[in-house]
From TrEMBL, chains A, B:
Subunit structure, as described in the record: Heterotetramer of two alpha and two beta chains.
Organism of origin: Domibacillus antri
Gene designation: argJ
InterPro entries named among the record's database cross-references: Arg_biosynth_ArgJ, ArgJ-like_dom_sf, ArgJ_beta_C
Record carries keyword Transmembrane helix: no
Keywords: Acyltransferase, Amino-acid biosynthesis, Arginine biosynthesis, Autocatalytic cleavage, Cytoplasm, Multifunctional enzyme, Transferase
Protein name (database record): Arginine biosynthesis bifunctional protein ArgJ
Chain sites annotated for binding substrate: 150, 172, 183, 262, 384, 389
Site description Involved in the stabilization of negative charge on the oxyanion by the formation of the oxyanion hole, residues in chain: 113-114
Active site (catalytic residues): 183 (nucleophile)
Catalytic activity: N(2)-acetyl-L-ornithine + L-glutamate = N-acetyl-L-glutamate + L-ornithine; L-glutamate + acetyl-CoA = N-acetyl-L-glutamate + CoA + H(+)
Pathway named in the protein's UniProt entry: Amino-acid biosynthesis; L-arginine biosynthesis; N(2)-acetyl-L-ornithine from L-glutamate: step 1/4; Amino-acid biosynthesis; L-arginine biosynthesis; L-ornithine and N-acetyl-L-glutamate from L-glutamate and N(2)-acetyl-L-ornithine (cyclic): step 1/1
Amino acid sequence: MKLGGFSLSTFPKGYKSCSLNAGIKDDTLDFTILFSEVRASAAAMFTKNQFCGAPVVVGKEHIADGYLQAIAVNSKNANVATGEKGLEDTRKVTEAVAQELSIDPKDVLPSSTGVIGVPLPVEKILTAIPGLKNKLTEDGLEQSAKAIMTTDTYPKFRTRKMGNVTISAMAKGSGMIEPNMATMLSYILTDAAIEPAQLQKMLKKAVDVSFNSVSVDGDTSTSDTVVLMANGLAGEVNVTEFETVLTDLCIELAKEIARDGEGATKLVEVQVTGADDHTVAKKIGKSIINSPLVKTAIFGEDPNWGRIMSTIGNSEDKVNTASVSVSFADVYVFKNGAPAEDKRAELAEYLKTDEVLIKISLGDGPGAATVWGCDLSYDYVKINGEYTT
Amino acid sequence: MKLGGFSLSTFPKGYKSCSLNAGIKDDTLDFTILFSEVRASAAAMFTKNQFCGAPVVVGKEHIADGYLQAIAVNSKNANVATGEKGLEDTRKVTEAVAQELSIDPKDVLPSSTGVIGVPLPVEKILTAIPGLKNKLTEDGLEQSAKAIMTTDTYPKFRTRKMGNVTISAMAKGSGMIEPNMATMLSYILTDAAIEPAQLQKMLKKAVDVSFNSVSVDGDTSTSDTVVLMANGLAGEVNVTEFETVLTDLCIELAKEIARDGEGATKLVEVQVTGADDHTVAKKIGKSIINSPLVKTAIFGEDPNWGRIMSTIGNSEDKVNTASVSVSFADVYVFKNGAPAEDKRAELAEYLKTDEVLIKISLGDGPGAATVWGCDLSYDYVKINGEYTT
C-alpha cells in the first residue's frame, strides 16, 4: 500500500464501514458496506455502456430521489450480462443490507466489479450479511478502498479537511478504463451539508475533468459508478471552495487510476491547447492516450513522435496541420507544422522518467483539455490474457 | 516466405519491375519500381489521415487524370511530417524515375512507408535510380512484394487468371493498420482494358469490404495507398466477373495483413449481422477487433466473452440488448439478451485454433459486415516499443 497513516479525525463525521470476505472467488476482501448514520444527500454518475450491470440499473433507481444511506459493494463479480436473474440477485442483496442496517432498501446503492457474464454467487453474499452491523467501524475507510480493488496494485484513497468539513474519497480501477460520464468505482463521502441538486451539479463538473479524462485501454466498463454522499453532520460549507477541493480530489484519484493502469510503468499526461473547443481538445488528447503505437513507444522509451502526429492526423475534426506544435515537456519535436530540431537523444533520456508529459498546441483556439493514461507493457498483455483462466 | 512458385505466365502482360537496396536504412531491399510498357488506366485510394505523407499529396495530383505508367515505392522511411522539404524530395524522386524511364513525371505515382518524422535520404535514392531501367524484369513482382515490407513477416502476393486477363496484387502492412478508404500499401496490376472511371468505382467497392475492413491496432496510417493499374494489353474483360475477382483478391490480401499483424498469433474474423445498416455493423465489428481487452483474451486463449458484450454495449449506436446473440464459431455464449449455457471448457479448446471466428447478431435488421483483425501479444509490445531505437 502506497498510502496509509490516516487517523479517525481525518474521516468525515457519521460514516462507518466494514469490509469482509464473502467467499465470492477466493479468500480476499470482496464485500464492503459504507454507511452513514443519517440519511445523506447523494449524487451519482454511471457508465453509459448499454450492457450496464444490474447494480447500475438498481443504483439509478435508488439514487433518483437524491438520498442514500449506504453503499454495498462487491468485487470479483460484476453481475453484468446476467439477464433478469442478475437484477433479482442485486435486489436481494440491497434488501438484505437494508434489513441488517434497519434502513430503507431504496437508500442502499449496490455496486459490483469483476468478471462479466458469470452469475453473482448471491447466496454467499446473503450469508455474509447478518451480523455485519456490529462489524461497522469508524476507521475502516482505507481498508474499504483496498476491498474494492480488482487488478489494482494499491488502494486509491484521499482525504481532505476544509474547516469543520471533511471529504474522503476512494476509487478503484486498473483495466477496462475509459470512463464515460463516470469512472470505474469511486465513493466520496463528506459531512458537509449540501442539497442533492447542487451535489449532482458539482459532481458532474468534477468528473468531467478527472475520471472522464482518464483512459487505460479505451474500454468503457459496464459498471462505472461514482457516488458522492453528503450527510450534513459538519454543517454548511463554502460551496465554491468545496467544489475546488472535490475536483482536486477527483483529479488526484483519476491520475492514480492511470498510474496504476494494468501493467503500466509510466503515467502519461497529455495537455491539448489551442483547439476549437474543449470537446475537440479532449477527443484528440484521448486518441493519443489510447493509441497502442504511442503507448508501446512510451513503454519502450522510444522517442518515436511521428506516431503522435499520425494520431492527431486521424482526428475526425479538422486540424490545421500547419499550426500544430508538439513537445515532450519542453522539448519540441514539431513546431508550427514542421519538424523541430532533432533531439532524439535528449528525448530518449527524458522518456526514462515515470511521468511523461506530452503537450500539443493545435493553433490559437480557446479549447483546452488535460487527459491521463499510461503506457502499454508486456504485463498488460499478461494480465489480460490470463484474466479468467 | 509463405508464397512462391509463380511463373512468368502468371503475371499480367506488359509489366516490369525492379527492387533494389538504395541504402535508406540498412542493406535490405528498400526501393521498387513497378512499370507498365504502355500508359495504363489507373485508380487509387489514399489515407484520410490529415498528416498524410508527401507521396500521398503528390500521388493524388498524378492520378488525377486517371492514368499512370509507373509506381515508385520506398520502404524504411514514410516521408511524413517532413514539411515542405518532404514534398520537394518526393518530386525529385518522381522526376528522376520519369527521366530514367523516359515517361511523363505525372505518370509516376510515388509511395513511401516506414518511420514518420525523419527526412527522406533523397540523395541515396537519386543515386540509385540511373541505370535502373536495365534492371527491370518481367518476373520480379513477387520480389517487389517483399521489397515493400516493413514489419511484415512475409510478402503478401496473389495472382489470378480470367481467360486472357491476369490480375496480380501485392500488399504490405503489419502495424499502424486501420485503413480508412485505403490500406497501407497495395498495388494491383492487370492487363485488362478498363476505363479509369469504371476502375475507380470497382476499386472503391472492393476496398470497402477488404482493406477498409481490417484493423491491427486502430491507427490509420499516414501513408495508406492502394493503386490499381489496367494497361489493356490483354483486351476487354467481363466487368462483373473482373469486379468479383478483384474483390476476392483484395479480401485475401486484407486477411493476410490481419494474419501478419504485428506480433499476431491468430487471425480474428468478426461477422456482424442484424444491424440497422452496414455502417453500424462495421463500426461494431471494428470495435471488437480493436478492443485491447478482447484481443489480449484471444491471445491468452481465455473465453472471457463478457468483454465482447461490454464492447458492444459501448457502441455509439443504439443496441437492443435484449436481442443480441454472440457465438464463437457455432458455440453460443449469449443468446437473445441472456447468457447461454456455460461452455467455457469447449470454448477454451476452440480458442487454441489460429483462426478465431466471432459471430454477433444484433437483431433482425438488414445490416451486415465482416471485419478482420488479430490478437494482441507480447510481441506487439516488443515490436512497437523498440521500433526506432
